[in-house]
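Support request from a user on the community tier.

User writes: "When I paste my structure tokens into the form, the page sometimes reloads and wipes my input. The last time it worked, I copied everything first. Here is what I submitted, just in case something in the input itself triggers the reload:"
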């Protein structure tokens, strides 16, 4: 009898817990070792701080001098407050801890889905690890992280519904209420629900009622029905698709995307030889989320989860015979204790903790974060306004230097396209770079010595600018006042 079959008869498998702990520990360590990229974090801290100070959600863009005062929708208001609260309570260490818990929470739920599909612990662990690595590009610290476990929980609920277990369905309206106030990906909840209603095999009446309640829950937000229009508008926004890398189609570069494209070939091969008949709903999800993943990198993480569950079903006979034909790690108490230790020990890799024992521990912030230069600018409030800096630096300064409006933030939808066109021309040091800066009344420049060499060369050769600060990475120039 296989280990998977033994577990279905009620025999607990602490070996399964140990294997899951090992996979989750690997995932957690990867998450907390990843440097915090500024591009989707600091702006939300600033929004959260603004909400906390004014006790209201802003209605206009308030962080930049290029679009200040323009109408704006802050649909991620709850995430912004949460991120600010976490940062205030425990800095980058607590932030990394919470992000890690959210990510491993997602994959723990996918593990439960794999076990619900009667997959053995060894096969489930291997599939889970490969799935996680494929989606690791989407683990950066950002609002989407809070939506990941909600997606995993929804999959588990619908899988149980397929197996005529309806009790957990009533969690879906609560999930909807949370998700709609956390992140725009709440629309994926209804992609899953509507397709399950049409192609699923569970109780359609119960699911229809729960879906209606979940839809009603989406209007319990500061913007009501308008939030649907705002979110769908962002999905179809040409400006976002043009100037945000993650909204562009994936290309087969980097090992994560190698896994993604390779997995599509694996699905084709396994499908050709498998004798297992998978329910139509799984193919609908696979095709729908596959189309989204091929159209935008940001959807790869969601697709990877659907693909893992589909493959688990198609390959289940082979997986059971190869990986779970005999029990592994039979010492139950040892497995339980070791599994707990494996889950606890990765806490040593948190920012601020790892520096205590690891001489060359990775820094918690990406090296593109201009911490020293921004501290120097903050210490010199007499410097003139309208500072131009690259996208990453501007986003960091939106929170680290709130008293000084920045050039642009990650909220691409809040800006005219001309700003991004001008930004590209500045980075190339186009022939009219000075005219562009004059048009926006820019008086200060914060330049990255690694990524902005053409502009540094042009500015250094100009009589209009003087260098007033430099460190290992950054330079600050001030515009010369002409008599």
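"...and here is what came back when it finally went through:"
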């Amino acid at each position: 009898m296989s280990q998977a079959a033994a577990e279905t008869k009620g025999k607990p498998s602490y070996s399964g817990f140990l294997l899951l702990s090992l996979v989750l520990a690997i995932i957690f360590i990867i998450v907390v070792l990843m440097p915090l990229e500024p591009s989707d974090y600091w702006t939300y801290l600033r929004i959260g701080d603004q909400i906390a100070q004014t006790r209201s959600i802003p209605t206009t863009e308030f962080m930049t001098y290029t679009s200040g005062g323009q109408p704006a929708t802050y649909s991620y208001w709850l995430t912004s407050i949460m991120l600010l609260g976490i940062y205030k309570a425990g800095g980058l260490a607590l932030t990394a801890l919470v992000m890690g818990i959210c990510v491993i929470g997602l994959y723990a739920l996918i593990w439960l889905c794999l076990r619900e599909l009667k997959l053995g612990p060894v096969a489930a662990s291997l599939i889970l690890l490969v799935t996680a690595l494929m989606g690791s590009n989407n683990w950066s610290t950002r609002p989407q992280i809070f939506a990941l476990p909600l997606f995993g929980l929804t999959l588990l609920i619908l899988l149980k519904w397929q197996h005529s277990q309806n009790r957990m369905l009533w969690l879906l309206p609560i999930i909807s209420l949370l998700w709609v106030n956390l992140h725009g990906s709440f629309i994926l909840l209804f992609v899953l629900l509507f397709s399950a209603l049409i192609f699923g095999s569970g109780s359609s009446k119960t699911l229809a009622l729960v879906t209606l309640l979940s839809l009603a829950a989406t209007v319990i937000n500061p913007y009501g029905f308008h939030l649907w229009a705002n979110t769908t508008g962002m999905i179809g926004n040409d400006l976002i698709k043009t100037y945000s890398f993650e909204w562009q189609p994936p290309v087969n570069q980097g090992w994560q995307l190698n896994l993604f494209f390779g997995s599509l070939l694996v699905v084709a091969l396994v499908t050709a030889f498998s004798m297992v008949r998978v329910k139509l709903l799984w193919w609908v999800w696979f095709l729908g989320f596959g189309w989204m993943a091929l159209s935008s990198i940001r959807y790869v993480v969601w697709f990877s989860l659907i693909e893992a569950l589909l493959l688990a079903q198609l390959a289940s006979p082979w997986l059971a015979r190869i990986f779970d034909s005999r029990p592994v790690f039979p010492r139950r108490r040892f497995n339980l204790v070791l599994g707990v230790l494996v889950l606890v020990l990765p806490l040593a890799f948190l920012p601020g903790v790892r520096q205590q024992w690891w001489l060359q521990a990775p820094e918690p912030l990406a090296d593109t974060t201009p911490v020293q230069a921004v501290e120097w600018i903050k210490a010199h409030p007499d410097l003139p306004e309208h500072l131009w800096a690259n996208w990453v630096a501007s986003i960091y300064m939106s929170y680290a230097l709130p008293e000084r409006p920045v050039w642009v933030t990650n909220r691409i939808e809040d800006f005219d396209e001309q700003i991004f066109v001008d930004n590209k021309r500045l980075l190339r040091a186009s022939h009219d770079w000075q005219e562009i800066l004059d048009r926006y009344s820019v008086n200060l420049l914060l330049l990255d010595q690694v990524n902005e060499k053409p502009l540094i060369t042009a500015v250094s050769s100009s009589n209009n600018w003087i260098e007033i600060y430099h460190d290992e990475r950054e330079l600050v120039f001030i515009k010369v006042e002409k008599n």
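Agent notes: The reload is a front-end session timeout and is unrelated to the input. The beta strands are 387-389, 444-448, 465-470, 474-479. The chain has two domains: 3-33+73-342, 371-479. Escalated to web team.
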